[in-house]
Amino acid sequence: MKKIIILISAALLVFFSCGGPQTGGENAENPYQQTAEAIRALTGNLPDSLDKNASRRYLSKLQKMMLPLEGEKAKNDLRVVPVNVRTVEPEYIAEKIQYLGDISGDPGVVVYARISDIITEIRAKNGDHVQKGDILAVIDDASVRDAKHQAEAGYESAKSQLGNARAEYERMRSLHEDNAISQSQWDQVKTQLELAKAGLKQAEASLEMAKTRLGYTLLRAPVSGYVSGITDEAGDMASPQKPFASVDEIQNVKIIIRVTERDLMNIYEGQHAGISVSAYPDKVFDGRIVAVSPVIDPMTRTARVEIKTPNPDLRLKPGMFARVSVTTEERDNALTIEKAAVSRQTVLQRTGDNFRDDRVVKTYSCFIVENGIARKTPIGIGIESKTKYEVLSGLNAGDQLVIMGQNNLSDSTLVEIVE
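Request: output the structure for the sequence above.
Response:
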């Protein structure tokens, strides 16, 4: 029994000897110190063996000594809170802005039919790699070929008319020189020649248009790349309003993001960007900003930013959803703190006589451990990463920073560091 009592007393002595918040400095009249000294004296007078009644008397005296410390404040002061800590050391930190975008080929082109008619043959399939100019599909050319024949006939007719007009012009010119015809007749001959020339040019243009439309019956790849998006089959109707396929060169890919006004000042051409996709969660692809729009879209208040990245192993596919991270600021030897370890408060600060002069101020603090006691420390912060802040003031290298258990702490709480 004596051993149990001594253990209890020793534990209490440890608690009290650690002290608590001491408003009067190292004052000997501190109630914690007085109680601890009384318990120390009482424990030192214990006999070697105690019977049941002697034990009860001892515990009764101990309870009376504890009565002055039974207030709520004393209970909180005597708590020992387990916490996890880490030593503050300089490290690298980077502030980044995050945006989302879709991956597309560089270049990437959507192929449309230029005429409406039946698709007679499809020569490429999704996934094929084609060269610029390769035929992807063939459209029925019967009606377009008939139009070409008509244009050819019109061209030949216009040539004949021009030949006749020139012959008439030469014949009438000699008569005009001999004053054998009137001026009005001569003007009429010249007009007929000009009309014949214009008719031939019109016929040539119609023939060229017919030839061009005939070429539209062959859907060709506008760039080299991989084919995707073909949903039509032979017999379907091609339409200029419906895309037939996409052709993307994916040795290099690009991503378009829309950057807000606030972040635009930190974006510039040549800047590096990290690209992540769900297909490769542990891989960050290195890209580079190649174009920043000088104009803000008034509808979205964002600017178009284009990012390109090499894709030699073809792992990035057009249509993938990408997360883009752009580093705007970085520090090599900065003191940092986990965001979860920071206590944030927002206060309204008055800067003038008018309430319009008030401004919202954010304050930050954390807990460090000194000699087994938690000390609440105001800090100033700088840049921030996804999980940490840069600490500009309030912390020093080597401080024991509380990173877990801080929600149960107040200034000067007794703590026990656990792993």
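Confidence is low (pLDDT under 50) at residues 1-8, 10-28.
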